[in-house]
Design brief:
By secondary structure, this protein is α+β, with helices and mostly antiparallel strands. Helices cover 62% and strands 15% of the residues. It has a three-stranded antiparallel sheet. It is globular.
Length: 94
């Protein structure tokens, strides 16, 4: 049980950022390119967006796939999807 608590605390640390939550809210609807994700996060720079995407990918929350000139991201960690579902009513709405 202690190990599970440690893993969920690590996940919550990664998610405890408003920009990463916006990214995940956008991706909850399905895979998106970086440009499409940036439309959901207009108040951060492209380099900052790339850093957040990389942090989420390195944490195993997102996976990415190169398609031509685009990189497509999708949520791969179902724990993140479940947590987003729990907070969606309060956070992921326009």
């Amino acid at each position: 049980m202690e190990e599970k608590a440690k893993r969920i605390a690590e996940l919550l640390k990664i998610l405890a950022n408003e920009h990463r939550l916006l990214i995940l809210c956008a991706l909850k609807k399905g895979p998106l390119s970086v440009g499409e994700i940036h439309r959901f996060t207009p108040n951060i720079t492209a380099p900052a967006l790339s850093q957040h995407l990389n942090q989420l990918r390195m944490a195993g929350i997102l996976e990415s796939e190169k398609q031509g000139m685009n990189v497509i991201y999708r949520i791969q960690d179902q724990r993140a999807t479940a947590l987003l579902g729990a907070i969606q009513e309060y956070y992921c709405r326009d």
